[in-house]
Amino acid sequence: GFAPDAAHPANLFRIHWHNDEARTGLTDTPGHIVLDQSFTGVTAPIVVVLGDRFPMIGAHKVLPAYACLAARLVTGRFDPAAQRAVWPSTGNYCRGGIAVSRILGCRGVAVLPEGMSRERFDWLEDWAGAPEDIVRTPGSESNVKEIYDKCAELEADPANVILNQFSEFANYLVHYQCTGRALEKVFQTLSAANPDLALAAFVAGTGSAGTLGAGDYLKRAQGAKIVAVEPVECPTMLHNGYGEHNIQGIGDKHIPLIQNVMNTDVVAGVSDQSCDSLNVLFNTPAGRRYLVDRQRLDPALVAGLGLLGLSGIANVLAAIKTARLLGLGENDAIFTVATDSADLYVSERMAMEKSAFPDGFDAVNAGEVYARHVLALSVDHMLEATQAERRRIFNLGYYTWVEQQGVSLADFERRHDQNFWRKLQEQLPLWDALIEEFNRRTGVNRPG
Fold this sequence. Notes:
- The longest helix is centred in the middle third of the chain and has 25 residues, at 169-193.
- The strands form two sheets. The protein has a seven-stranded mixed sheet, sandwiched between helices.
- Helix 2 packs across helix 6.
- It is 46% helix and 13% strand.
- With 448 residues, it is of the alpha/beta class.
- The protein folds into two domains: 9-57 and 172-384, Rossmann fold (3-Layer(aba) Sandwich); 61-169, Rossmann fold.
- The termini are close together.
């Protein structure tokens, strides 16, 4: 066999949601955890589908990275022998891009803010072809403009091809098709045990907005509402706002080109202080003991909380707020994803412990964190999106894409119409046919 984190070509065939817990076999239903009222305080079950089962990077962002490069390869728009794939990101997407580039035998360049977690850079230093293939830009999660500026500089060299996750529609399509169907499979499994269960909402952080494409699928197939999540410290959708925050992977201070804003039902704001504090609660002995011994939570559920990275924690908190806002009940399932796990944020947890709990994190601290950041969640920083609010948020993208990045006004505006997105979705069989033909011509066979 071959290890799931090895730079082995067969790991490309593991880039899907159906890996088992060991990431070496298949499971019919994608890995997930169900958070019930005993933990969340709301009756609606919150279903978290796990991204840490993806190969090589332990995060689902390798899926859109593979999709974006594959779309160019099968259409002849990327020459792996002569060109470099440049991956602008705030961490996980560029790691996925570097992994796929290395396996496909082309040079990959990661462009990401210098303030991202130490674990991201440790991984990149192991996988990148050369130190200069890791380009650090100023700032942290919300400093995407600085990433774009560096990409514009790199793009002056025609050998560099920018695979911008915020504007590559392959990112949207792969989540619509693959993530949407994977989440629907989990729902079908759960509804087999409870026929009254409905898929009431899909919750996901904005980030590149690719994952929100799964919401378009679930709305079309199951009638789910779509909830877009952002940090309250950078409330772009909520208040046309800006700011710094530490929910790594979301809240990038702009509206992605591939975000189907006009299909959004709710915007939810979550604080990075909540996510950083809960990262400590979920992943320290004192925190876990408190949840099991004092709150009488199932030890298996508590262990599962360690499968949530910072953006996964944000998604869960937004799901709790959504349940309260919409008055959802025991038969109204809220679905979300955990892009990665706490393994990528050990350094962030240690920094939080040092700064917020200098005398050590104990049961008293655990009780305060749980009460404040979970049980006391309210419906503040929430917006039920009217048509006018959707249009306001849609218009914010003009400044990034038309004024700064040179997208034509006509191309920008056509995304306002849902027919644009439906026609995009209808192209999926054409992409599948191109991939099959590419594999036939190159002699690619799926490993047995």
